[in-house]
Amino acid sequence: ARPKQWLFPGRNRSGHLNVRTLQVVCQRARQNSGLTKPVTMHSLRHCFA
Asked: Is the pTM of this model over 0.90?
């Protein structure tokens, strides 16, 4: 069954975050962590699949 709530809800809670916003957050987290390999939303999916 499909979840009833978004995994990454937007500000108004009726929609989801913009894809570009998630990409920027992901890249900033990578830079702050010191990782040198690219990190994408798709690579995170494979880490936990």
From this structure: no
